[in-house]
Task: inverse folding
């Protein structure tokens, strides 16, 4: 790797639990279902990371460029000691990872009760299409910044030839849009129209960390297409979760953690000139030093993004009656992902 990332220092910082975070463990031990499906987790080894480009180095994606299966299971037990967690995993998404080898690592070594999403390569369509026949592939993940410069159109990194095969084989795709849903809704709707039987999960509630203009209209447009679902990975806003739940419905939203990025402690704030941003407690290598110095006090006392996302979901679900809470909770944390990604089937 050309760039040095002090990953172990960041992990040690994350492992230094605050008193509040220790209390969160007990709170969610009581609140969460006994068995959980986490449908959004990154996992690969150090040996799979060939290089970290300057572009990736300046992005939070490079905070933990590798995170093994063993580390994943260890952290799951730290956060949720008594829960059974089944996981859909795929490699880190930035260019510079040997995704072919990383895919094989997950396909070979993942537990039988877990699932693997193939990381597809837009510059190697034959490889991607061929790997969709692997019996352990439960989904397809492709990423806009794998292309340099980063793609602005979904079809640039999700080629139509690949989507045709995914649709034919009934393999859902995990779609991280190239920009927030309010700015690329037309592209999403075009894919839905071009591939009406393709099941799509829009990751991160389509990149919405806060309610923005046009979001309700975008959710309403997507809600008309039952083949489109959402995951909650790294969404800290109860207002966004509530809006999605109200418009799209409880059958089409799934819990995802964005592991290991969920270990970052940060807060969302509005920069006077750059708009919506995050500021972190730790001084990560990708953080702008001047901006961090100016706004880091906002992150004082912040806790893992893992807990922020869970609290956003909990706050919304707790607004329902006791009977409704249990039903919705079971759907979001297990049932929806079980059927969408085939967890109920033997691998």
Result:
């Amino acid at each position: 790797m050309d760039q040095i990332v002090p990953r172990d220092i960041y992990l040690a910082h994350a492992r230094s639990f605050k008193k509040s975070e220790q209390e969160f463990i007990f709170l969610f031990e009581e609140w969460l279902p006994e068995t959980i499906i986490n449908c959004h987790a990154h996992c690969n080894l150090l040996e799979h990371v060939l290089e970290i480009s300057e572009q990736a180095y300046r992005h939070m994606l490079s905070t933990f460029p590798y995170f093994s299966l063993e580390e994943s299971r260890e952290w799951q037990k730290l956060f949720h000691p008594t829960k059974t967690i089944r996981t859909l995993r795929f490699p880190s998404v930035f260019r510079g990872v040997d995704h072919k080898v990383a895919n094989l690592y997950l396909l070979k070594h993942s537990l039988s009760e877990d699932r693997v999403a193939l990381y597809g390569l837009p510059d190697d369509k034959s490889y991607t299409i061929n790997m969709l026949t692997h019996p352990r592939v439960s989904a397809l993940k492709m990423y806009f910044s794998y292309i340099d410069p980063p793609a602005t159109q979904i079809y640039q990194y999700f080629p139509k030839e690949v989507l045709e095969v995914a649709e034919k084989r009934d393999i859902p795709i995990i779609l991280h849009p190239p920009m927030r849903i309010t700015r690329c809704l037309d592209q999403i709707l075009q894919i839905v129209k071009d591939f009406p039987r393709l099941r799509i999960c829009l990751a991160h509630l389509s990149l919405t960390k806060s309610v923005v203009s046009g979001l309700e209209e975008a959710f309403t447009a997507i809600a008309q297409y039952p083949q489109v679902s959402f995951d909650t990975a790294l969404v800290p806003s109860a207002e966004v979760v509530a809006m999605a739940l109200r418009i799209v419905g409880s059958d089409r939203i799934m819990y995802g953690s964005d592991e290991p990025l969920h270990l970052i402690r940060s807060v969302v704030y509005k920069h006077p000139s750059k708009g919506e941003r995050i500021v972190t407690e730790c001084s990560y290598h990708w953080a702008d030093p001047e901006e961090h110095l100016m706004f880091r006090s906002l992150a004082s006392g912040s806790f893992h993004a893992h807990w922020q996302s869970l609290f956003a979901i909990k706050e919304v679900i707790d607004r329902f009656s006791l009977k409704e809470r249990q039903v919705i909770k079971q759907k979001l944390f297990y049932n929806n992902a079980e059927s969408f990604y085939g967890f109920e089937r033997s691998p």
